[in-house]
Design a protein that fits this description.
Elements (H helix, E strand, L loop, with lengths): L13 E7 L7 H4 L2 E6 L18 H12 L3 E7 L9 H13 L8
Parallel strand pairs: 1-3, 2-3
């Protein structure tokens, strides 16, 4: 833009949903891009597992990749599994409903 230094230009943020197994927020490189998160997975005691931790780093790696490709992004983290191979269909449906219908199924959190 004429008259403004590159660092002063304001770019619109791109909202990106990371639908995966959570993100390790201790990774500073992705933490600053995260706007919010939500978990749709419960542990063995029926407590929601936090979206901001990850036993497997796949979700963290995806968040890092997105933020490197687009440094003008806002990340929204949705946890639907614990490890890479245990995607829970009910959790994925809950995320889809939240993102597209702004609602949740009765009995969900």
């Amino acid at each position: 833009m004429p008259g403004k230094a590159r660092d002063e230009v304001s770019y619109p943020k791109t909202k990106v949903a990371i639908i995966d197994n959570g993100v390790d927020v201790r990774q500073e490189v992705v933490f600053r891009y995260i706007t919010n998160g939500m978990s749709f997975v419960k542990d063995s005691d029926d407590w929601p597992m936090p979206w901001f931790t990850a036993q497997d780093l796949h979700g963290t790696q995806m968040a890092r990749l997105v933020s490197q490709v687009n440094p003008y992004c806002e990340l929204y983290i949705y946890r639907i599994n614990v490890m890479r191979n245990d995607i829970r269909l009910d959790a994925a449906v809950q995320v889809w409903l939240k993102l597209h219908c702004h609602t949740q199924l009765p009995g969900s959190w």
